[in-house]
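Translate sequence into C-alpha cells.
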Amino acid sequence: MKNDLDLHMLLRVFDKIRTKGEQIEQGHQLEGVKAVSDFDGYTVVLSDVQCNLTLFFHNKYEFDYPSGTAREQFENRILYIDKHF
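Result follows.
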C-alpha cells in the first residue's frame, strides 16, 4: 500500500471489520481500526487513533496521517485484518 492503495482490499477489510468486529457507537471496530459508512454506503471511512482514510465513489480516496510512521502502522493493521480474518 506504499505507493498505490489497493481499493478492493480496503473494501474487503471494511467488510471484515463490519462483520467480525465489535459494534461501537459509530460503526464497527476490529484490531484498533474503526469502519464507518455514510447512510447510502458510497463513502466509507477506515481510521485508527492517528490516521483517517476516506474511500469515495469512483475509486477516489483521501488519506490523512500525521507521519510516515503512523501511516505504516495503520497499513500494518489493515494488512493484518485482511490476512487473519
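Note: Residues 7-84 form a domain with the TATA-Binding Protein fold (CATH 3.30.310).
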